[in-house]
UniProtKB/TrEMBL annotation:
Keyword Mitochondrion belongs to the record: no
Protein name in the entry: Histidine kinase
Protein's organism: Mongoliibacter ruber
Any single Pfam family the record assigns to this protein: His_kinase
Keywords carried by this UniProt record: Kinase, Membrane, Transferase, Transmembrane, Transmembrane helix
Molecular function GO labels: phosphorelay sensor kinase activity
Cellular component annotations (GO), alphabetically ordered: membrane
Amino acid sequence: MQEVIIKKNISIITHILGWAIFGAVLFLLTPLTTKLEFPNEFWMKQALMFLALIATFYFNYFYLIPKILFNNQAGLFVGLNLIGGIAYIGLVILFDELVNMQQLMHEVFRPGTPHVPRPRNYSYDFYNIMIFYMAVGVSTSVAAVKKWQADEKLRFELEKAKTNSELSYLKAQINPHFFFNTLNNIYALTNIDVEQAKTALLKLSRMMRYVLYETEKNQTLLSKELDFIKDFIELMKMRLSSKVKLEIELPERIEEAKIAPMLFLPFIENCFKHGVSSQHESKIFIRLAKVGDQLHFYSKNDIFKAKDNTPEGQSSGIGLANTKRRLELLYPNQNQLEIKNDTASNTFSVDLKITLT
């Protein structure tokens, strides 16, 4: 609230100073530098013209521009300003005639000589009407810039709201997808080893705590994300047979930074979903490292087609698609994602680099 008041006061002061400089240059500077004594009628005319320009500026700014010009009535706007300019000059001429300004000015510049009425010098009127339309032009420019700034601010806020809404939706999709696969793994363990299933449930509860609290934030600590990844991999290890060769390169400690939560989970989850076979030898490689401000994630796994009647087989790959979208929204021009599905070697790899700022 205080910031709004300060900005409003600055705007008022700027307008006052602007008009003070404008009036001084156009209506005071030249007469005062001549060192001549002008009649009261002359100064009255200068004051009236100055006030008329101020009134024109703000009438244009607060009414004609927002109500007519910005409502796609440019023709009417131009027409009204043309009429206003003619009326302005007409009033100046009328005032000059009423006070006999030509004779008064003759006495200032040629005192002691008889005044001979002459035709009006319309070049001075042309100068005045140019000043009038300058006021119109400045008010139109200021209003247009202000509207552009307001529209740009609104567009930015709408885009931000859309982005936040989309991110929330994407995370909401990722979370059930993750829990579905994890619970499916635990269900499989209950038929093999009850104690391992209990251990798995304890790890899952810790992971659920992370998902519950950390995914509500736009960013979390990289160390927390790393702990989450380790828990997930340990959970997955419980269901792996000796046929799976697992190579994990995760740092014990990592230089702290901010990162979007659960950003790497879909890639890691995909390794275990499609890279494990109960009949064939398989290999999964996962690496995460941070060098300077660049975070590098790499994963590679063999590809085994899941059965169509399993949850894995029915999955549409929504996690990977949503993660790509999250990267576009959260790290525009800051990420390099390369996904390779090598049919020759029957392997799938993800190479992701993120520049953290």
